[in-house]
Amino acid sequence: MERNQIIGFILIFAILLGWSILSKPSDAELAMAKAKRDSIERSKIVVDTFKKDVEVSSAEIIPSNVEGDTAVQVVKEEVFTLENDLIKINFSNKGAKIVSATLKKHFRSNKKNDGEAITILNSPNNKFGIQLSGQNTSVNTGNLYFSSTQSGKKIEFSTVVSGGKKIDYVYELGEGYNLGFKIVHNMSLNENPSLTWYDVMPQLERSEINEQRLSTVYYKESTEKTIDYCSCTADDNTSMKDKAFDWISHSTQFFNASLMPKNFKFQGGDFATQMVDIKTNDKDLKVLSSVVGLPKGQSSYEFDYYIGPNEFDRLKAYDNGLEQIIPFGISIFGTINRYIVRPSFDFLSTFISSKGIVIIVLIFIIKMLLYPLLYKMLYGQAKMAALKPEVDKLKEKNKDDAQKQQMESMKLYQEYGVSPLSGCLPMLLQMPIWIALYRFFPASITFRKEPFLWADDLSTYDNIANLPFEIPFFGAHISLFTILWAVSTVIYTYYSTKNVDMSANPAMKYVQYIMPIMFLGFFNSYASGLTAYMFFSNLINILQIVITKNFVFDNDKIRKELEVAKSKPKKKSAFQSRLEEAMKQQQEVAANRKKG
Fold this sequence. Notes:
Largest sheet: 14 strands, antiparallel
Structural class: alpha+beta
Number of domains: 2
CATH architecture of the largest domain: Distorted Sandwich
Number of strands: 20
Shape: elongated
Oligomer: single chain
Strand content: 15-25%
Distance between the termini: 24 Å
CATH topology of the largest domain: Beta-galactosidase, Chain A, domain 5
Radius of gyration: 32 Å
């Protein structure tokens, strides 16, 4: 093998080894995984209980708040509204709970309800209530009827239960998406109250597959700096009975409802996600559920209840890590998105109104910053192109001995001071940016409903044509940005490897052209912001290569530099000496086999 192949295999092995070490689960993670498996059955019981409770509360039965006592009962369900310029929230006196929240500045982009204002927390199967257990009674507020008093942007719900005990729910809407929420009671409790929240998430986006994969229950342990969540791609349950939590959040791709205690911590929790078959159900997306404990030594519980978009600055303002629910990624990639890519887009957006133009400007800035590395890569390729006649002579001289060809070519490159690996560094440095952007575009609400050229929404795929049938792994539509990216990738690959010698591994010459075709199906349903970025990035790359090779490089000067490098004394490294010795031994073994 050539030196560059060996180094390449070493790098690949090092990357795989490093990744396996970094991604190896800790003892705590293994214990948590075991706890998840142990709680699956409990999860099924909890979800089934939720469903039964919903069926009971949805039946045409008027429940009695008081058993054996005489008290005035509310027997008619009514809806009350609090709203400001951003949000309209409807409440029902049955359970004193939210029955819908409409976000006035945001609109659906899915095929069925395109253009309608976003409404969440509105499924008739939703459940929200507090379980209070005293010495003489046990009530679930989700099944009780409340009387109400409304004043401006504040509404109070009250009810009386057995023994004349009173329960109050107080909601107060501020100027933004924050809803003040307070529960007050005068019951003597013999166990911790529990809050049950069962939420059927609606389909809101054009790509329901991506939306489903980015929707889940998030929660933050009080002792941890980072958040945790249930699986996004499968049914999941997490039971954490002995933990305290700062908040819980039910989040879709771009919107969330989050409950944040102010004067206490949640005491333990069961969190679950249940997938919905979106091929047969074009209305619902996923079922999220949370059951958390409240301290029994308190008579009042105060919350901040955020219901709104996943906007980084709004969530960051709570100063409790809530902004981490935006799925920008973990580790270094999430850090790049949160603190480099996102601020860069926000800064450029203050001067440029079109998000598509912002993407192009950012590409140009990144490419200019990386141009010195690209120049070095192209300069190394130019040197190898200048040596091509000598390499061809060596191949012709040793045409019957492939190992001899490789060894002599390696000696030639060493003699002239040329490194076949000179083009690797620019691509390696760009990889973290590419991976980060892969997570950034479908997670950032900045690009939602933002048009550019033929794309009407950069947060989802651009659709220039619908197919009368669905192609496996591709879909039933055609994304033009994806097609343009694939074509430009083939062109870029041709220009960037035009003078690269691949005779040692001819298969790579064809694989590099097949790869973009293989990824057509993957990117066809992905965020058009990303495919637009990749397409224009390829265009700028091609432009830089053409200009540099035709107007910057002086081939005669490069040849003179090679001759000067050849005349300088060379010192072999220990690795090179061992490699040459190994190749000589391989040649001797091959020669002995040939002799018989």
